[in-house]
Amino acid sequence: MALLVPNIGELESLRYLVANNNHTASLADQSPRNLVLKLFTSNTTPAESDVPSDSRYYEPYGIGNTNAYGFAPTTGYPYCVNNRGDQTYTSQTGILLNGSRWRINQVGSGTTATYPEQTFTFTGDAGDVYGYYVTRANNMPVAVQGVVHYASVGIGTTVTKGDNTDPVIGVIGNSYITIDPDQSVDDLTLGMVVGGNAGIQTGTTVIGIDRALKVIYLDKVLIDNIQVATDSSVTFSFGKIAVTNHQLVAGDVLYIAAGTGNTTLTSNVYTVFSVPNANEFHTTPALTATPNSSAGLSTATLYSSVMYAERFTNGPYTIQNNGDQIKITLNVALDWFILIKKYNKLLVGGLLFYGDPPSFLKKLLDDLHGSLCL
Fold it and tell me: Can you tell me the distance from the alpha carbon of 220 to that of 75, in angstroms, rounded to the nearest whole number?
């Protein structure tokens, strides 16, 4: 049975595929992390709209099929063991996979990656285990991961670029501005709200950055020139996540769920952009914070994102005794076609079809849907 890729897994995969994740100052920070294999004990059937939550994809930390996030596992469910000297993931649970151990095979038009069998050995009752999923590695501790409303969302520091010596330049009608060569753009990223200048429309955000040329692309056109003669400075604002001892570093990928009733923070997959201290971090795309301090509104829940997931075909498997095991061999396959649903386009063998696919392709898609679910 093939793994199902939910929408948030598609988003993360697409970012990596098209290099849309290079918005940190150093590309080394964005090198893909190794993957972590996790089990889930929630009665979940993977679906495209899935996101991690307090009722889905929680791991077997405690006795029975209950969410025990916030507490150390009592079932023998493992913590990660590091396999690189330059990355630390021992606060995370699951089995850390080693990227160099994937075996890639190409047969005809299909490409398959296979990982050696992995074994989870339990020390006690963990209830029913329904399946497994794979996430990008991070070092978020059990006191943080999945604990509802544990993190708070606040207003980050506003960044100002440009002055009369090192100006920001923009031309009315254009949807970009240019930062002076003597000023850094390493602290700018997608999603930041742009303002502080009469030439900037209210609600303008950053949608692209050319770090080499120091060009910032905007989602709204300029309504006046930005120049030394008038005002050559521009501000960039963003939200921040505050959570005690998060142990995250730039480049980590996670799913951030907005607190109940929070209509300004978008629940989605984010990459850690910068870490000013052990208790705060910023993301890319940048967060839009809410000033409302009511319970739930200015909070967030942090999860490891779900990249790939599968429910056991003959499961669930009941874990009751010391020494009970679950063994998993991972197989990830990519077929020779890509269906781009959101834009109603189909790419097959280098041919691009718009609208509904031809009838012969409809049958092909139906036949292949069980082997690759996008």
Answer: 53
On the question of pLDDT at 303 being above 90, the answer is yes
Sign of CA dihedral 20, 253, 262, 279: negative
Tell me, yes or no, whether 125 lies in a domain.
Answer: yes
Q: Residue 286: name the closest of 120, 130, 184, 155 by CA.
A: 155
In a 13 Å sphere around the CA of 275, the CA atoms on its Cβ side amount to: 16
Q: Alpha-carbon distance 13 to 340, whole Å?
A: 13
198 Cβ partners below 8 Å, 6+ apart?
A: 223, 224, 230, 231
For position 265, what pLDDT does the model report? 79
**Same domain, yes or no: 326 and 346:** no
Domain match, 371 and 311 both? no
Indicate the number of domains in the chain: 2
pLDDT in tens, 199-213: 999 999 999 999 999
Helix (H) or strand (E) holding 210: strand 206-210
> Same structural domain for residues 69 and 80?
yes
CA–CA separation, 161 vs 168, rounded Å? 7
* Position 274 in a domain: no
The answer to the question of residue 118 being in a domain is yes
- What radius of gyration, in Å, describes the C-alpha atoms of the chain? 23
C-alpha 248/C-alpha 215 separation (Å) is 29
CB 291 within 8 A of CB 155: yes
Residue 61 covered by a domain = yes
Write the CA distances from 131 to 122, 126, 204, 312, integer angstroms: 15, 13, 43, 5
The count of other CB atoms within 10 Å of the CB of residue 236 is 23
Which residue range(s) make up the domain with 320?
A: 7-145+306-336
Question: How confident is the model over 274-296, as a mean pLDDT?
Answer: 80
